[in-house]
Amino acid sequence: MSLTNQEPHDAKENDGTCEGCTSRRHLLTVSSLAGVTTLGLAACGSSNAASQSSTAAAPASPTGEATVAIPLSDLAVGAKGTAKLDGGRSYLFYRVSETDIKAYRAVCTHAGCLVEVGADKDFACPCHGSMFDPATGAPTAGPAPSALAAYPAGVEGSNVVIYLEG
């Protein structure tokens, strides 16, 4: 408790408060709000990778020109593929159905390593063991904190196309 050089003053007779004093109700309200705000900020700063990366960010709607990535015949339904486009950058593809194609930039969200098609069902990062679900781009194993960058893709004629300026 600290002492001040203020002159003592009397509380108002009608409500038990004094002029210039902070009421107990006001103090409790401000303290409670500060505690709730602190808890809210702590929850936002959580680094739980499972909650952050359960789904990939949806790719933007296709805009601009489509870039032919690979022949449709090279990507059967349920298959994964890769292509170098856009000045040698690598992209990953997954054919969900006859017309539904998923496309991702082949850069791991952990350390920037090149993600590969992988021998198993998932895309694989050889640097630190991160694995990514080809249907969502979300990490399924390893230290990657978030999903692969997704791009709009589809089928045009006999080709798989990607919209790099989504």
CATH level 1 name of the largest domain: Mainly Beta
Q: Helices and strands, in N-to-C order?
A: HHEEEEEEEEEE
Per CATH, what is the topology of the largest domain? Answer: Rieske Iron-sulfur Protein
CATH architecture of the largest domain: 3-layer Sandwich
The low-confidence runs, each spanning 5 or more residues with pLDDT under 50, are 39-55
Figure out the total of helices: 2
Distance between the termini: 62 Å
Largest sheet: 4 strands, antiparallel
Quick one: how many beta strands?
10
Domain Rieske: 67-162
Keywords: 2Fe-2S, Disulfide bond, Iron, Iron-sulfur, Metal-binding
Protein name: Cytochrome bc1 complex Rieske iron-sulfur subunit
GO molecular function: 2 iron, 2 sulfur cluster binding; metal ion binding; monooxygenase activity; oxidoreductase activity, acting on paired donors, with incorporation or reduction of molecular oxygen
